[in-house]
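The aim of this short unit is practical: by the end, you should be able to scan a pair of folded records and say something sensible about each. We start with the first protein, listed as its amino acid sequence and then its structure tokens.
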Amino acid sequence: MAKDFLNKKYILYGSSIIFVRTLEMLVLFFAAHYLDKENYGSLEYYKKVIEVGASFLSFGFPALILSYTRGENSKKYFYYLSLFFVLLLSFALFPILYHYRLQFLLIPLLFYAIFFTGGITQSYLLVQWGSNKVSFYKMLISLGFYLLVAVQVYYYHVSAFAFVYPSYFLLPPMLIGVGYLYKQQKIVVRKLKQYGRLFYRLLASSFTLVVSNFANLMFLYTDIFIIKLLSDQANTDIANYSFSLNIANALMLIPFTLVQVNIEKLKKSSSVIKKLNKKITLLLILTALFLLVFYKLIVLYFLKKYAHTYILFIIITVAKAFQAMSPLYGTYMVIKKRFRKNLWINLIMLFLNFILSYVLYHKFRLYGVAVASALSLMVRYIILVRFVKRIENKNRHL
């Protein structure tokens, strides 16, 4: 197992994810230290709104490109068809945003959906060029983005919109880059139309991915919106909860790295699941223990205004551990085209999470919301494991 962890693909791709996550954490630590809780909570709220909105706007295409495409042409043409669809969807979304005076979010939504971490372009580059090259892409675009966020917070005293404005600088050159790539690849209109018909038939499956990914992302983000809705000091409570959540999010680096690097192996054989699950579980335990110590030191010596959130952090870490064990099984269900089952699992568990969060918040405040998420994510993990085992058993009897 140790040799597997030293695989060059793991090291480079994993390093790129750690680099990106470290940049994000440094910027958020700086913002948490530099801003008061009211302003930091506002920054976190808009950040979460953009991430959730971008998940909807990308329409499940990142997962579709990763799991469905096989040949070089299917990867290439599906990428450009996905971009075209997202741009059309953004035009349809604009009147809704304008009605609620949120039209300024359209550019960051587009940037996140198409180019940022977890977006359509990253998935395309991963299946087309491999994990090594996409690692450099992730690092460069993240470096530019988070530097702009830090500059705005420190020099221009931007708080709530610090994660909004960088997209206005980065989206135009990235679109020009896509135009150049389109020209270089010499897209054939006839083939584009052929793949367009297949792409159109897959939109129903993609819509289930959209809702499923949206539901998956909303776990623990639901907590932020519940707090915003119910709390009489919403921004301060969001600051406390988000600070804990951001550090616990480091656990998600593990499944994202291992699953994405091994995505082509997962497409070919289910035997990879058992090995990957062992690696993920071991790394989760070690990382969780490290984070518990790290968090204690941070709030004791550097960010003392968050010292009272340690118990909250422990609960959120447990919730994140269950969430981090789930992507392997969820991705395999998508590969096997169990879109609807994956969708219903996520939707039902999200609804359960919402109800529990709402009820427990009134009794235990932030602790209740965190416990609700931990329980919901634990149940979802158990259900996903059982469904994947059923799929494997059926495959053995074929």
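Turning to the second protein, read its sequence before its tokens, just as you did above.
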Amino acid sequence: MSLEGDIYTALSGATAVTDETTAIFPEHRLYETTAVALPAVVYSRLAGSRVNDLSGYSGLENAVVEIDVYTSSVDKRRIIGDAVVATMTAATAFKCILTDSPIDDYISEENEVKEYIRTFDFSIWTT
């Protein structure tokens, strides 16, 4: 299975995540089919490298993956964000670490907050 498939399997199989949302997407939210469903989790590969040694390709790959949590409240952003981190770091199909502290943001229209966002960057090792 691909890394993206493994991430989806981990997130969609975690009760702590799916109790809050089943809107889990690769790359971007599907606005047309979900009517801008919140909350949502979006994951995408930002970069990656194959690990080589003196014998050539070692069979290891290291990817940088960003996961964004979109919610309509600050509390849900924290709850789902904590569930995503716990799920990713406990995954058995890959090994990963959170590389930075999460970044919080929001989207507003006419001085009204519409969405709260928490962004995580993970370094993920696969074979």
